[in-house]
Amino acid sequence: MLNIAELVEKYGDNLTIPPAPVKFIKLVDAESDEEQPKTEHLQSSCIQPFCATRVFQYKISNHKITAQGEDIKTVYDVVLASDSEVDYRWTPGDTVGILTKNLDEDVDSLVDHLELQSTQHKLYRVEVDPATKKKAAKVPVYIPKLVPLRKLFSECLDLKSIPKKLFIRA
């Protein structure tokens, strides 16, 4: 198997990448009097894609695999526990979205790599860049309006996923 350097050397003249998408979001220093985000998950107060209810906070108290195999989708039986009363009745077939966090070691590694140690806890406002040429540009509803960089890296980005084509083009 060829590594990336060998691919570029062998096919460099024939490789093309589409142009990067227009940048339209920017981070702006937040005023010191702006309210810090709550300690709960940053995205819990945002509207999530395909959501039917607000975000509920649960802990997984028990789980087991009820079906799995090469030719079938893995099915889990998950028992959720909540510290507060929830006014929603779950029914079989409901879809559950999970708001996760990246490991502290992974976030530390990213902060170190980007040399952001001194600004990782600083509060930023997420805004549409006024200089953008993108039509109807808006910040996605599931992105918090105010965010410290460390919490953005910890709770809003998937640091373990395979980079998407848009990321590579940028």
Short description:
This protein is an alpha+beta fold and 170 residues long. It contains four helices and five strands; from the N terminus they run αβββαββαα.
**Which of globular, elongated, flat, extended, rod-shaped describes the shape?**
globular
Give the rounded overall mean pLDDT. 83
Work out the number of β strands: 5
Q: What is the CATH topology classification name of the domain at 18-47 and 99-169? A: NADPH-cytochrome p450 Reductase, Chain A, domain 3
Helix-residue proportion: 10-25%
CATH class of the domain at 18-47 and 99-169: Mainly Alpha
The side-by-side strand order for the widest beta sheet comes to 1-4-5
| Uncertain segments | none
| Distance N to C terminus | 26 Å
Give the DSSP E fraction (strand runs of 2 or more residues). 15-25%
Helix-strand pattern, N to C? Answer: HEEEHEEHH
Note the total helix count.
4
Radius of gyration: 21 Å
Class computed from helices, strands and strand pairing: alpha+beta
Which CATH architecture of the domain at 18-47 and 99-169? Up-down Bundle
- Major sheet details: 3 strands, antiparallel
Protein name: Methionine synthase reductase
InterPro entries: CysJ-like_FAD-binding (IPR003097), NADPH_Cyt_P450_Rdtase_alpha (IPR023173), Riboflavin_synthase-like_b-brl (IPR017938)
Domain Sulfite reductase [NADPH] flavoprotein alpha-component-like FAD-binding: 49-169
Cofactor: FAD
Description:
The protein is an alpha+beta fold. Helices cover 18% and strands 18% of the residues. It has four helices and five strands, in the order H-E-E-E-H-E-E-H-H. A three-stranded antiparallel sheet has the order 1-4-5. A two-stranded antiparallel ribbon has the order 2-3. Strand 2 and strand 3 form a beta hairpin. The mean pLDDT is 83.
